[in-house]
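Example for tutorial group B:
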């Protein structure tokens, strides 16, 4: 799954890493829940290049009667994305990369409280999650651009915490993922078979459970006595 995300990299770092056409205006966030804006890289429509923009997390399809449907469409399963009505057109024509420093997963423990883990890259650099986006316009002209993060069966080390995780798109596949010319489902599916990403997961404190908390303490390792719970 993917319950929350974090992004604290500087605008200059993001511009260099993702080859953006301009320096983005982003602020650090340590605990971003669904329904809030996430930083997404999209290909420019009229010329070569990439741009980072803020999209609402929770996809609202163009045919939706109510934008609240986005609360149910925050994640898109890789197994069904090509056939699910809300995602099947977007995965062919409107793919993006959600940029993160890491994401959170919660380990269920029966009747005991779930344990929150922060998952980051082994090199501590920002990385990209596969996502799809869409544009919704209300009858009175309100425009909402939103996205859903693609998920897959969990790989190490996340598989010890949860059975699913977001799709990490490796750097060499960014251009193909963002390409508007790649529209055949079979070819898109090839991109989803990425190699195992180099990730690190560690237990964090319960402060992250409340999405109102958005500060560096959310990503700090839990004290040693709590680590022993895992």
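The residue assignment follows.
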């Amino acid at each position: 799954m993917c319950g929350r995300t974090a992004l604290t990299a500087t605008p200059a770092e993001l511009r260099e890493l993702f080859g953006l056409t301009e320096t983005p205006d982003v602020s650090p966030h340590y605990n971003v829940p669904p329904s809030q804006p996430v930083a997404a890289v999209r290909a420019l429509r009229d010329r070569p290049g990439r741009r980072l923009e803020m999209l609402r997390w929770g996809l609202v399809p163009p045919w939706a009667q109510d934008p609240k449907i986005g609360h149910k469409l925050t994640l898109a399963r890789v197994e069904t994305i090509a056939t699910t009505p809300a995602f099947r057109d977007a995965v062919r024509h409107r793919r993006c990369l959600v940029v993160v420093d890491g994401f959170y997963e919660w380990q269920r423990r029966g009747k005991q409280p779930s344990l929150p883990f922060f998952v980051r890259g082994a090199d501590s650099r920002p990385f990209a999650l596969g996502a799809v986006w869409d544009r919704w316009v209300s009858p009175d002209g309100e425009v909402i651009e939103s996205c859903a993060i693609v998920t897959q069966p969990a790989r190490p080390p996340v598989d010890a915490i949860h059975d699913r995780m977001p799709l990490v798109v490796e750097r060499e596949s960014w251009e193909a993922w963002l390409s508007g010319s790649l529209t055949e489902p079979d070819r898109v599916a090839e991109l989803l078979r990425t190699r195992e990403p180099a990730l690190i997961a560690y237990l964090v404190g319960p402060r992250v459970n409340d999405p109102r908390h958005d500060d560096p303490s959310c990503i700090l390792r839990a004290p040693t006595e709590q680590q022993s719970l895992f």
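The mean pLDDT is 90. Compare this with the pattern of hydrophobic and polar residues in the output above.
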